[in-house]
Amino acid sequence: MKGIILAAGRGSRMGGLTSDRPKCMTILGGKPLIQWQIDALQDGSVAQIAIVRGYLGETFELPVHYFDNPRWAQTNMVMSLAEARPWLRQEACLVSYSDIVYGQDTVARLKGAAGDIVISYDPNWRALWELRFADPLADAETFRSDADGRLLEIGKRTDNIDAIEGQYMGLLRFSPTGWQQVEDSLAQLPDGEADRLDMTSLLQRLLQQGVTIQTVAITEPWYEVDSETDLRLYEEKFF
User: pTM of the predicted model, to two decimals?
Assistant: First the structure.
């Protein structure tokens, strides 16, 4: 299994921290965010890793494979992932956002789960969100699955915290069959619409088209870095 880290965007909510470096190069716990992902993937026996780069792509010097999204400023995360289609078409790939921190147990759970498209989630998300936000619903979205772990709904705004059974992390796995389902779905979109598509919108679109998406719950801590405030909070409480 291969690993793909999506690191094309700037991360505008990080303010001046990304004026001279990509968001994934900001430091948490003494090392760049992206090194946390690489370490977790390698510790989880994901031997080959690629980074999809865009903003300040020339600053990446890690000894991995690279895909480039030259249109990073005009596209969203789904089209950045599409740049890695040569790998996605060939074998199963674990796909990671570049602004999250997780460990090898999470990687192992995702690798071992059955299904052509699988996403990990945190069922105990609320405690972290209450630390990050005065109102945890301000940055939370719906997440529902059935008794067999099949995803039912994701990515919608809600004022009902009971509609959120977990927090999607930004960590997924695609088999070649699962990726083909994504490509088939993207091919049906009008010109330009695929460029604007974010990952949860893609997942919800696939659900509406009858595609099965499996979910796997994690048990170890993880962290999402959206802002400089997040970095300060995590450094103070966890690192």
Answer: 0.96
